[in-house]
Structure of MFS transporter:
Amino acid sequence: MLSLALGAAIIVTTEFTPVGFLPNVSRDLDVSLGTAGLMVLVPGLSAAVAAPLVVVGSGRLDRRLLIVVLSVLVLLSNGVAAVAPNFGVVVVARVFLGVAIGGFWAVVPSLGFRLAGPRAGTRATSIILAGLSVGTVVGLPAGQFFGNLIGWRLTFAASAALAALIGIGQLTVLPKIPATGRMTFAHLGEVFRVPIARTILIAGGVATTGQFAASTFVTPFLLRNAEMSSGFATVLFIAYGLAGILGTLAGPALVERDRMLTFAGAAAVFGVVLASLPALAGAPVLVSVLIGAWGVLWGLVPLALQTHMLTATPHAPEAASSIFITVMQLAIAIGSGVGGVLVDSAGLSTVFVASGITAIASAFFALLTRHGL
């Protein structure tokens, strides 16, 4: 579980480290801030395409070997980005990352139930997903801190080295994990025939769109709108990530009681938080508290959605995970893309208000269709 959590952490770190230094890349490679946001959009879009292709294409390949190969792709993505001569090459490097993201999240979440058994499956999944929050703890502040200290290129290079170490560790400690069967595109289609799965995908996709429209541009919001120093913003990123870990690890008790209600409650409240941030930008203490609350609430969302998806489709867990990650990564891409358009056309405040309304809408939809659409 720990090795898988570390794999999740490095993937999320790599995906979101650029959020901390978007302004640096924008300046150094002479692109707009909205265009620099493609570093988040492109991995999401390519992950959405890659997730079902990796599950179907990997066939009966041992999942241990597949996980290690995906770690190598993370290494390659970071290494290419570190030496990229222009923004176009950075985008290509982020496509490699997208393939790794799609494959990892399509295959790994279901392993919690396989390796720990059904009774401990939710707790095991929460440990793996805690790596997501750990990646946020590392990724956002590391991008902010190291991007300013050593530059964004060396930050990418350091991430490549970490990916190499984690890949070696996975190869060493993971047992052989045979595929449960050969997935086909027909198996993927069956997921959409499960009513509750459709509700999970729609509600989760809408909430994730709002989340990443805001989180992609949280650095410029804190620096420009809230007028915080770079150092204080870094501290807030750490607090946000630690709060996310707390939400994920404390979540199983809530999730096992009512998965959909846990999701809806968390989405509604973090939607209110996002929509309130622009109005409170001049009050740093309130902004700090809200950022921490946002982290806790978002930590609950992936756990509630992922475990609900797996329990709703026990006959095809990898197919369900691949469809789930495809929808969520599309939502990340849409969120960061729409966020970039809004930043360039209407300003940062509009992004956060629109994101909050989107998250609240997802909560209402989940409550109205909680027994299946």
In short: The CA atoms of residues 25 and 31 lie 8 Å apart.
